[in-house]
Amino acid sequence: MPVIDRTYKQLPLKIKQQHSTDALQKLCGPSNGNIKQIEQFYDVRFCGQPGDWHIEGEQKGLAAKAVARLQIALAQHGELTEVDIQGALQDGAIVDKDKVPELLIAGRKHISGKTANQRSYLKEIQSKTLTLAVGPAGSGKTYLAVAAAVAAITANRVERIILTRPAVEAGERLGFLPGDMQQKVDPYLRPLFDALAEMLGSDRMNTMLEQGVIEIAPLAYMRGRTLSNAFVILDEAQNSTREQMKMFLTRLGFGSCMVVTGDVTQVDLPRHQQSGLLHALQVLEHVSGIAICRLSASDVVRHHLVELIVNAYEAGERNE
């Protein structure tokens, strides 16, 4: 029995005839609850008999794809869980990056990429659930991630912003740091705070911190959590271990967006430990739904000497 949407003719309900009634009931859910969730999420309406629908509404194509994903889950598991339903809805909500606006409204700032790579990076963040960005100092990888996070929470696409970073010093030991957890990690997350304060203003940023809308979560404290309806940024990810990176990436929950940033030329881990970011770039290279963005010295937008310094170090490393 086909799901009928005239723009999605090749969208059959692959249910064997002898099990069609039972399978269709499971697909629709009690009192058609699954279908009603799709209608509400995409603001569409299912018309006709169950299993022989046509769908009305601007997002009817996405709604039809959600039904197809539920059908696949049902064929695999024999039942549909709430996880299956939410997964089908959220996967369908991924935005076509060609339709993503280039100008972000991030608090009191209007932000766009200054280079082609930066513009592509911003589009990937807005169209993919997980984005990994690598690049040298000053290439905008952290600043643009924060801008996308502020834009998302301003538009009510997420409920909170979560910032995290490995607590690894850059070549020197800072020793004991006084204060509560936020005060202890402040030095490590200062670049993120600077960007947030610029976009939101210090007063609003501090209010959001107090209310938990912006959350500071040291990477070591992430284990066991599921991060849903959040915009999550892992900064300086080159200093995460392989185990920490896997643990962090598997925290992803429904309705969330993750951005992982780092500079693979500035790894401060002990020499015997491989960078979790370098490993993730290798193993996730061809995973669907994940974007990998590589910024370069030509994307540096700080003082012009920064680009020259980056180029000089890269040339020196090549010679070595």
Structure, explained:
- By secondary structure, the chain is of the alpha/beta class.
- Helix content is 42%, strand content 14%.
- It contains eleven helices and ten strands.
- The chain has helices at 20-28, 33-42, 60-77, 82-92, 116-127, 141-154, 181-200, 202-211, 242-249, 276-283, 304-319; strands spanning 45-49, 52-56, 104-106, 109-111, 130-134, 160-164, 214-216, 230-234, 257-262, 290-294.
- It has a six-stranded parallel β-sheet with strand order 7-6-8-9-5-10.
- Helix 9 links the parallel strand 8 and strand 9.
- The longest helix is centred in the middle third of the chain and has 20 residues, at 181-200.
What layout of secondary structure does this protein have?
Elements: H1 20-28, H2 33-42, E1 45-49, E2 52-56, H3 60-77, H4 82-92, E3 104-106, E4 109-111, H5 116-127, E5 130-134, H6 141-154, E6 160-164, H7 181-200, H8 202-211, E7 214-216, E8 230-234, H9 242-249, E9 257-262, H10 276-283, E10 290-294, H11 304-319
